[in-house]
Design a protein that fits this description.
Blueprint lengths: L1 H70 L8 H40 L7 H30 L1 H26 L3 H10 L20 H4 L4 H25 L6 H15 L5 H32 L17 H19 L8 H10 L14 E5 L4 E7 L6 E7 L14 E4 L2 E4 L1 H11 L4
Antiparallel strand pairs: 1-2, 2-3, 4-5
Length: 444
């Protein structure tokens, strides 16, 4: 009997030992899994901000090329070739930005899927660790959904953007045809300019046909009524100009009287036309707000991680995910963009403290987001760009990014000499100036 009792006692000790080893091993595995998850999030944190910076760089390129295309319509320095080159580059950059956005979105969806799977593992974690895993998963899922909605919107409005580029190009065609009239000194030279250069306005012929429709007009005109109302006005004025110029080039001087009518009619319609790019920006506001808010939730979760020192445990003494100022800077930048959407200008503040007050006053700030004002900088020309800086927690240096166009350029596009004479008849091209000025409003 004593032998049997000893064997049972030893067996119980072994079972207890194995149980303790199993429990301890499971706890260590859980901590290891949590640390591995944190390490993956460190990489994902950098990728998320890199995507934000790439988004800014792409938008800056698009806006700069669009600005230069509009600027190149200045009559005193006009070049149709230069205008079209900028427009082609704008279209290329837009397409490239969509491709990069799709790739970044796919990567984000993949990372969120992995994170979601990891969060469902039955790990033995502390209450704070569990909260962090749950909150980081929730915030990134929401951010991914907001990004997906924004990408889908960018794809949807691509035709509207393409129509804007087309209008700029065709305004250039009209200007290219008419500018030689300004240098014509005799009626013979005016006649020659009308007849020999008629092919330059060939792209306007489509607008003279009743059946012509802008890209995606049937599917998007109800969603973006202001844009397609503007496009309709351009269809009318371009079509009328083409027919009038065609008649004049063939010697029909009765078309001269129509030129002034075209100008007066278009000038009246301009009072009710909205810039299509402003309509797009306004329609994008809800998704931009959602991106800002979900990005802020993500930053708050990283603050929780750092404040509770979840990077420190028996298997790790590193400080993963310490760089969070960059995420807060992104949140502030989205707030500035929302301000610009509503007021058509950037906050003209010269310090971050003043910017924070402005954003709070306009309700573009995110409540509960902690930040140290000394870690951020801000400056802006109040019109075309702003610069936002943030302190890199690792290097201790201030790193800055720029949103918008820093080019020193005049927005006024000059004026076209609106009256010329042909066979003693005055030809009034006043609406060309209205066209040019309206196109100038497309520039950022």
């Amino acid at each position: 009997m004593p032998l049997i009792k000893n064997k049972i006692f030893i067996l119980v000790l072994v079972l207890i030992f194995l149980l303790l080893v199993g429990v301890g091993g499971y706890k260590l595995f859980s901590i290891y899994a949590f640390n591995s998850l944190s390490k993956q999030l460190e990489t994902g944190n950098n990728e998320l901000f890199s995507g934000f910076k790439e988004e800014i760089a792409a938008a800056n390129k698009i806006n700069l090329n669009l600005f230069e295309a509009s600027k190149s319509l200045e009559p005193t320095n006009f070049s149709k070739e230069k205008t079209d080159n900028y427009l082609n580059q704008t279209k290329t950059e837009y397409n490239n930005s969509l491709s990069a956005y799709k790739k970044g979105l796919d990567d984000l969806e993949s990372n969120v899927s992995k994170l979601d799977s990891a969060s469902k593992l039955p790990l033995w974690l502390s209450g704070d660790q569990k909260k962090f895993v749950s909150d980081i998963t929730t915030s990134l899922k929401a951010h991914k959904d907001a990004r997906k909605a924004d990408y889908d919107f960018s794809v949807e409005v691509k035709p509207v953007f393409s129509n804007v580029l087309q209008i700029i190009s065709d305004t250039g065609s009209l200007l290219d045809y008419m500018l030689p009239l300004q240098t014509a000194k005799t009626e013979q030279e005016v006649t020659a300019a009308f007849t020999q250069n008629f092919s330059k306005v060939a792209s306007l012929e489509k607008y003279s046909k009743e059946s012509y429709k802008f890209e995606s007009q049937d599917t998007l005109s109800t969603k973006y009524p202001d844009s397609y109302k503007a496009f309709a006005a351009f269809k009318t004025v371009f079509g009328q100009y083409f027919l009038a110029i065609k008649g004049l080039s063939q010697g029909d001087m009765s078309q001269a009287a129509k030129l002034e009518q075209i100008g007066n009619s278009f000038q009246l319609s301009l009072n009710s036309l909205q810039n299509p790019l402003e309509e797009i920006s306004g329609k994008a506001k809800p998704t931009t707000t959602k991106i800002k808010d979900t990005y802020a939730d993500y930053a708050k979760t990283l603050d929780f991680y750092n404040e509770n020192k979840l990077y420190s445990n028996m298997l790790s003494k590193e400080k993963w995910l310490a760089q969070n100022n960059q995420n807060k800077a992104a949140v502030f930048a989205y707030g500035v963009n929302l301000y610009q959407t509503d007021l058509d200008k950037y906050p003209a503040d010269k310090t971050f403290s003043d910017l924070a007050a402005t954003l709070k006053d306009r309700n573009y700030f995110v409540s509960g987001l902690k930040y140290n004002e000394a870690d951020f900088t801000y400056s802006s020309d109040g019109d075309m760009y702003f610069k936002l800086g943030y302190k890199n927690e690792v290097s201790g240096q201030i790193e800055t990014f720029t949103v918008g166009i820093t080019e020193d350029a005049q927005k006024s596009l000059g004026a076209f000499n609106k009256v010329v004479k042909l066979k003693s008849v005055e030809l009034n091209f006043g609406s060309v100036n209205h066209l040019i000025n309206y196109i100038g409003s497309f520039a950022p």
